[in-house]
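Record type: ASSEMBLY
Status: queued
Input:
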Amino acid sequence: MKKYLLAAAALTMLSGSAMAQTVLTANIEPATTWVRNFNPFNQTSSRQSTLDFIYEPLVIFNRFDSNKPVYRLAESFKLSDDLKTIDFKLRPNLKWSDGKPLTSADVKFTYDYLKKFPALDFVSIWTFITDVQAVDAQTVRFTLANPSSLAAEQLSQLPIVPEHVWKDVADPVTYANENPIGSGPLTEVPRFTGQTYDQCRNPNYWDAEHLKIDCMRFPQLADNNQILTATADGTLDWGVSFIPDIDNVYVSKDPAHYHYWYSPSSMVAFLFNLETSNEANKKAFNDVKFRRAVSMALDRKTMIDVAGYGYPTLNEDPGLMGELYKSWADPSVKADFSKFAAYDADAAKSLLDEAGYVDKDGDGLRDNPDGSKISFSIIVPNSWTDWIDTVNIAIEGMQAVGLDAKIETPEEAVWTSDLIDGKFDAAINSLPASASPYYPYKRAFSASDKGKTRFTAQRWFNPEVEDLVTQFTHTADLDKQKEAMNKAQRIVAENMPVIPVFNNPNWYQYNTKRFTGWSTKENPFVNPSISRTNPARLLNLLALEPVK
Amino acid sequence: MKSLLRNRKALIGLAIIAFIVIVAIAAPLLTHYDPTARTGRPHQPPSAEHILGTTRIGQDVFARMIYGARTSLAVGFGACLLITAVGTALGIISGYRGGKTDEVISFFTNMVLVVPNLPLLLVLAAFIGQASPLVIALILGGTSWAWGARVTRAETLSVKQKDYVKSAEMMGEPQWRIMTFEIFPNVISIVGINFIGSVIFAIITEATLEFLGLGDPRVVSWGTMLYNAQKASALSVGAWWDILTPCFALAFLGIGMSLLNFAVDEIANPRLRTGNHLKRWSLLIRSGEGRL
Amino acid sequence: MAFLLRRLAFYLAAFIAAATINFFLPRLMPGDPVRIMFSSAGTELPPESLQALKLTFGFVDGPLWQQYLTYLGSIFTGDLGRSIKYFPLPVTSVLGHALVWTVGLMGTATIISFALGTFLGIVAAWRRGSKFDVIVSIGAIFATSVPAVVTSLIVLFFFGFTLGWFPNGYAADPSLDPAFSFQYVGSVAYHGILPMITLCTVLAGGFTVTMRNNMINLLGEDYIVMARAKGLSDRHVMLWYAARNALLPTVSSLAIAIGTILGGSLVTEVVYNYPGLGNILYQAILARDYPVIQGQLLIMTATMLIANFIVDVSYVLLDPRLKGA
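Status: finished
Output:
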């Protein structure tokens, strides 16, 4: 494929129509064909290069630097002392890509628009705020439903769209926004086919002096095999996918320029359905000693090395902090409970023996203390082979300590609904990575989310933890937040509602042949992933420059 | 039957099939590895320890191939038994009884014939989810009998007119007896051809469904071997043994069945024979001396 | 005439039945397309937004029978709705693009296989028993007995990966814009070679065997012997007497083959990442994209029915025995 690109590039130069443009080729999402949809509110079928690159956020919080705010469209924000209102002050003289001024009226318009069309509100921000006002041309004031120290983070998630374009859109849910007017670095789309599209420089970009890339190019790649080929032959500069045996298949092809760096990302854990309809299983699942024993039967290192090719990061933290949130970890919790999350088959067996889970009916498998049979299946989506391999290793471990564990591989859609509806016994699941442990705790342990999301699949709730989590948002004082998190951590670690095994890799491949300035392991100034879940990708882009 | 054994193609075909069946049955004797256990390091090339190397997660490829033969053969023969049984029964019934019965059955047969097969199977398999080999055999049986029914019906129509059938009718034999003992034995060559064709079809379709990920990934079969190898990007990482082993296994079995199919075709229709003992006869024809 | 009318009525009934199955089957599949779109993305919509989004996709409103009636009506107006995965592209647009590729690839492959297979079949039948016949027959057996998935993988492995002579996927070079330029068409052809080899291998064998068997059946007929007795050349008799009559059943199998074009190349398209109808259907099933699945099954069924009808018509025209029926 590289040959074709070079030939095509040569032809383009010969044709004389294009100036020497700096083009960075990247892959964000697999696709069978590109659909021209740049609607930033559409989470399912718009291009994943829309947020951040076309619609710049107000503020970006740098998770690799203690969540420090990096001001983008906003030059500052101020949270009131009672944590109930927050003001954002926009930079002066901001312009949209069509030259019209970007003011607080656009911000107010966007939020009111979301209220009018709830299907666009992909973070349900209107359960978080009650009002938005344009105080003056540059200042917007949000009134919160509940006091929250996390207001700025929450309000930075949504894109700001131009009022003069969107007020005339009849149905914003189906609107494809084919020629976007945006505020980010790359808003123009000079070329779009089913096989490739270019996103190019915003002529009125406020931070143009820091942008040294003229265009990003996105070739259509349908599956991992194709992405692998494009990565290995050097077509891609910036990638975000799973490459099997990466050192052999990719790095070895050009060790001077081909790199990757996998920092820890979302947490993968095993869990039991504490409200399963199987009564015998339910008894065992609800016993923390049983859960701890299962946790100690899991050979996490083998899961990482064999199932994950060595890419994931070990997580033996029963409080769920792990490497990702290590600045929030309470060392005393670790000292007291970490032994229950490390691989120790003998300790698992003794704990099970001691807790009364022995073989009562002579079939070689452990039973409940009251004699009822324990037998469960672990559900995992059938297309995620690395997870399937992980579960198989887990089952080996569980069977080795005498538990009757099996695997089931429903389709992804069914796995998700089973988790949400509670129609399963055991499962493997993940919690997305966030800025602080507040988010996973809120997602996994909020009783009101039971039956609505897959994060509460284990159905373990503790009013004290929920209270502490809310307290976290009621204070802007870091020490008080840490205090709340320490207490919550302890309860979680003690009860082990989910059994962590590892953190998924933050997929990131980069090619230094044409561009330098990347955020790397040696110089981790920002989260470099090009995934749309990482707004800091904008900062990585701005740090890049072509190789001279 | 004797003529079958004398036909060279049939012999080779039977030999291949017999070989595969024996290997499948004797699997535990041929390898001490458990096909689902991790017994080696991931993606090792063929070596003395692992004759055909290991898969992505470290399972022995050779063991998976010979145990997988069991599944593939079982589904192939199982599905085709179903297909042939249903098709033959419906074909004979509608061909012999004629009238309203014939119209109704023919209508359904034609309906099933016009629905595109593979897409329907895909949707069904996805609907069922995690389709185990048994389920795959069942849905294959349920959707693919139409061709056999049609062909059997045509043959029944011609056999129906024969003397021995007419005399049985005149003697007052009940219809079901006539169909079972007079008609069926005389359409058996068609049934035989149908049977073999269906086996090929069933094996190919099972492998295809599993390759597309609609089967049960826990099962050891040639189709799931293909699926796992493809998912592990075996071709791209250079683990050719992982993906070519099930490929050649399927090809080998397919060839064996097709040779047999071809031979049975020849037996049923003597004109198609090209065995060496007919060469003299063909030479005569060519020189214009006789007719076929 | 009456024969044709009866067939037409039958096809219409079959179409409605197929449309009904098409409607219910995807809806019975477990899983919900909106949830699927999120679970692998690693992001999750809050429950309220999810509900609002579902409403806009429009498949939660109205009782089932109402949706069914709307669906039936829409078939005849040609409005197959919007795809969920490629929202907001209409289904007809998604299928339309894919159709071009499938017809191009599969259509060309079918024509080439038909020509090749028929020709080989004729010659092999005429030279029955010779080395040529044996090679062709055995070759045809090999080609049809190996599953398409295996053939595509082996071809891809040897020519694409090992030898590197051909590209490993796509319909054309992604950096080129679709146009009727020499460059683009050339790229399309280049990328199409491997899938074409695969498909021809799979299809040609069938035509060869059919033609050969038909020819052999005919060679004993009186009129053939008569023609040879008259002193006509071998070639003349082979082509103008035998082949012409053997062609009729072969034509009917060709028509059926055309009807199955749309589904027949599915595995090949998936292996080569060719953006044809087969690949689209496969992806749609994985994504539970109901409108696309329904639309596609419908079109495939309709095509099969039309192909069958054309065969019926051609039989009536070609075989006088049927005209009186």
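Annotation: Confidence is low (pLDDT under 50) at residues 12-18 of chain A.
Annotation: Chain A touches chain C through 59 residues (CB under 8 Å).
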